[in-house]
Amino acid sequence: MSAITLQGVEKWFGDVQVIKGIDLEVAPGEFVVFVGPSGCGKSTLLRMIGGLEETSRGQILIDGRDVTDQPPSGRGLTMVFQSYALYPHMSVAENMGFSLKTAGAPKVEIDEKVGAAAEVLKLDALLDRKPKDLSGGQRQRVAIGRSIVRDPTAFLFDEPLSNLDAALRVEMRYEIAKLHHRLEKAMIYVTHDQVEAMTLADRIVVLEGGKIAQVGTPRELYERPANRFVAQFIGSPK
Ligand code: ADP
Ligand code: MG
Q1: E strands present in the chain
Q2: Residue 148, class by beta-carbon neighbours within 10 Å (0-12 exposed, 13-18 middle, 19+ buried)?
Q3: How far apart are CA 79 and CA 178, in angstroms?
Q4: What is the pLDDT of residues 26-63, one digit of tens each?
Q5: Neighbours of 5 (CB within 10 A)
Q6: What are the residue boundaries of the ABC transporter domain, all occurrences included (predicted)?
Q7: Which residues pair with 10 in a beta bridge?
Q8: Which of the ligands is closest to the CA of residue 157?
Q9: Residue 91: CB partners within 8 Å, gap ≥ 6?
Q10: What DSSP character marks residue 162?
Q11: What are phi and psi of 47, to 5 degrees?
Q12: Hey, which of 11, 18, 233 would you mutate to test ligand 1's pocket, going by the most ligand atoms within 8 Å of its Cβ?
């Protein structure tokens, strides 16, 4: 069964259609990247999957369950954004455990899950620090840690690295790839950066004007781009 299924998904803002009938299946453990130029609908589609944006038409299924009309909290997904506002007065551990605490989880369970996530993210030694005493990359890891503790079916990332400098972006890209190998969870990752897409993706979905221009492995897109738009976008010689 697919982790995430989109069937004929459309989005209208008033009488403007920005998502124009998307069909897609994301397998458990698969890393899917949405790419395309600014304004093509990447964030809107991701927000619809996460439940932050209503779906005008079509269905969204998570683990085979129709969640089209479910609020974000009922979907078993988690979203990681570029602006990873951490609570400044809380420690790393408190930031990571906060959503579990508000959900009423017992302290032992919170400590255990935060500890496990900290190990994966190499934050063990930083759990007592405040966000202001962390580097940009460490803060981004804490933001991801907040998502991991909730044990989601899938992770949704919207350009999570775009606020970081070039060197840190490369480092965090490796971290995200490692995280994916380690967790084996489905991930949908939005970026306008071709290099990020080519290095992270099992499959790339190229979006153009709210439609899928092509879906395929990085190699398929590079070697056999469906049209000039995809070729130019992927940087294929053809
Ligand atoms: P991307 O993330 O690929 O840059 P978006 O999903 O943010 O693109 O936007 C897709 C299109 O939808 C754009 O034309 C944008 O202006 C429009 N759009 C996004 N959000 C809204 C909104 N809340 N109301 C009206 N139009 C919107
Ligand atoms: Mg966007």
Answers
A1: 4-13, 16-26, 31-35, 57-62, 65-66, 77-81, 154-158, 186-190, 203-208, 211-216
A2: buried
A3: 18
A4: 999 999 999 999 999 999 999 999 999 999 999 999 99
A5: 19
A6: 4-234
A7: 20, 57
A8: 2
A9: 127, 128, 129, 130
A10: T
A11: -65, -30
A12: 18
Contacts of 149 (CB under 8 A, 6+ apart): 96, 97, 99, 100, 110, 113, 114, 117
40 lines ligand 1 (CB under 6 A): yes
Tokens for 129?
């620090």
Identify the H or E element spanning 120. helix 107-120
Kindly report, residue by residue over 144-202, the tens digit of the pLDDT.
899 899 889 999 999 988 877 888 889 889 989 999 999 999 999 999 888 999 999 99
**Sequence-ordered strand ranges (E) for 37-135:** 57-62, 65-66, 77-81
Contact at 8 Å (CB) between 215 and 24?
yes
